[in-house]
Every structure is written in C-alpha cells, then in structure tokens.
Amino acid sequence: MSFSNKLYSFRKQKGLSQDELGSKLNVSRQTISKWELGETTPELEKLIALGDFFEISLDELVMDVKAKENTKTESLVMNRFETIIDSIDRENVKMYTKKISKIVLIIMVIILAIDLISMIVYFILNGFPV
C-alpha cells in the first residue's frame, strides 16, 4: 500500500476530514488532498508529525508492508543459512581433527615398530648384554 493510500486509510480510521487533519498538522486541506492523491509528498517534519498523530512508526507510514515482510524473511533465511554454514564448518573441523589424529597415531606406531625392529636386530647381532 502506498503512502497516499495509507494516509487516507489512517485519516478515515480516525474519522477526520482533510480539513481537520490539516488543522492538526498546520497545513491546508489542499495539501492533505495532494498527499492523499500522491501529487506531492510531505516534508520530513510533517511525516514525523503524521507518525506521532497516528501513533505509528515512519517505516509503517511510508514503507510498503510487503517490503518490510520480505526484509524480515530475508533476515530469517540469512540467519538460518549462517547457522547451517557454522554447523558444516564445525563438522569439517571435527573431521579434519580426526584425520590428523589418525595420521599422527599411525606415524607413532610406525616409529615404535622401527625402534622395536632395530632393537631386535641389534640384540641378534650383538647378543644380549649381560
């Protein structure tokens, strides 16, 4: 819904004529009419006054509701996407850590086996020390 349509709706909900709303904002009836027809847009100070008068935020007054909902949906999707990426990253780190641990363990077993084999060969060639 456009600003002009919203302004018209909010004014009607309050049961005000264009003249009554104009007097509350210190503008003419014609100015309110031009805003509602979309011919002109109010200055920032008048937008703030309209928001205060209708007790709504400026976003609600000037932004399209669908655009606001899309922004919320995009934000939720991005948060979910980031959560999934973080989860995948944690899983990758766990898998990488496990692989490194296995490699280190295999290297240690190989070193121990070489050490044992060299000790056995030494004792066979030189005999047991007495």
TrEMBL record:
<dbReference type="Pfam" id="PF01381">
    <property type="entry name" value="HTH_3"/>
</dbReference>
<keyword id="KW-0472">Membrane</keyword>
<feature type="domain" description="HTH cro/C1-type">
    <location>
        <begin position="7"/>
        <end position="61"/>
    </location>
</feature>
<keyword id="KW-0238">DNA-binding</keyword>
<protein>
    <submittedName>
        <fullName>Helix-turn-helix transcriptional regulator</fullName>
    </submittedName>
</protein>
<dbReference type="InterPro" id="IPR001387">
    <property type="entry name" value="Cro/C1-type_HTH"/>
</dbReference>
<dbReference type="InterPro" id="IPR010982">
    <property type="entry name" value="Lambda_DNA-bd_dom_sf"/>
</dbReference>
<keyword id="KW-0812">Transmembrane</keyword>
<dbReference type="GO" id="GO:0003677">
    <property type="term" value="F:DNA binding"/>
</dbReference>
<keyword id="KW-1133">Transmembrane helix</keyword>
<feature type="transmembrane region" description="Helical">
    <location>
        <begin position="103"/>
        <end position="125"/>
    </location>
</feature>
